[in-house]
Specification:
This protein has helices spanning 46-58, 77-87; strands at residues 2-5, 7-9, 24-27, 30-33, 43-45, 66-69. It has 88 residues and is an alpha/beta fold. The protein has a two-stranded parallel ribbon with strand order 1-6. Strands 2-5 form a two-stranded parallel sheet.
C-alpha cells in the first residue's frame, strides 16, 4: 500500500504552517501568502490521517493500491489565512 498524506494539521502542529515555507511566511502579526492565494491546500486532520493509515494496514482490499489522504474540504491559501486570522 502507498499512502500519501496531505498537509497534516491538528494538536501539536503550528497552525501557521511554518514547516511549509513555500506557501507563505509569518512575520510578526502578518502572514504573507506567496502567489495569488488560490492554491488549494491539501490538508488532512491528524486523526483522519491515522484512520486512513490504519485502514491501509488492515483492510485486505487496500493491498497494492495507492491512496492520497486529504480531507473533503480543501481551502485555498487565502481562505486558510482568513480563517486563521479570524481564530487568532
Amino acid at each position: 500500500v502507498v499512502a500519501r498524506p496531505g498537509l497534516v494539521f491538528g494538536p501539536g502542529i503550528s497552525p501557521y504552517l511554518e514547516h511549509l515555507p513555500h506557501l507563505g511566511s509569518l512575520r510578526g502579526n502578518r502572514y504573507t501568502v506567496f502567489g495569488d492565494g488560490e492554491v488549494p491546500l491539501q490538508l488532512t486532520y491528524v486523526e483522519n490521517t491515522v484512520d486512513a493509515l490504519w485502514r491501509c494496514a488492515t483492510v485486505p482490499e487496500a493491498a497494492g493500491r495507492t491512496f492520497t489522504v486529504v480531507d473533503d474540504a480543501l481551502p485555498t491559501q487565502r481562505e486558510f489565512v482568513a480563517e486563521l486570522a479570524r481564530l487568532t
